[in-house]
Amino acid sequence: MNELAELARKLENLIRFGTVAQVQMQPPRVRVQTGTLLTTWLPWINPRAGLDREWNPPTEGEQVVLFSPSGTLAQGVALTGLFSDLIPANGDRAGLHRSTYRDGAVIEYDSIAKHLRATLPGSAELNAVGPVTVITDASLSATAQGDITLTSAANITITAAGNVAISGAKVDLN
């Protein structure tokens, strides 16, 4: 291959579009289909990868941009997160931060409406070593289709400026 052709090949490979063909979890790598080429295993760019880290691996079919600073695809990295006709955007307005998961879970914060919402198809759990406090300037309610249980290794205190009502088919205040 002459030098001019090699230079042209390297320039073409500096920045390319492609789609994730395969995902490997350990170590985290992807193979990308770009045109007729299938890359070797390449790292993907993640929002954080230091002492604070995020883990959100790409999925097959996700559109990416390949950056190969040397012009050699085998030394490139994949920048994930490009919406496509196959995988369209999961939001449609400014101020919305939404994470949508393959099982149907959605966690979103709308900074314009000032509203946080989590829709979960399964269970949820909050674990804390220290105290957990919920403060609201409005009402607080909990609704369950099953039982609600409060358990404490110490005391339970209910304080109200108004009335306290406890009702049920059977009320046991032992």
UniProtKB/TrEMBL annotation:
Q: Where is the Gp5/Type VI secretion system Vgr protein OB-fold domain?
A: 18-83
Q: Which Pfam families match?
A: Phage_base_V
What NCBIfam families has UniProt attached to this entry? Answer: phage_P2_V
According to UniProt, the name of this protein is Phage baseplate assembly protein V
* Organism of derivation: Pseudomonas leptonychotis
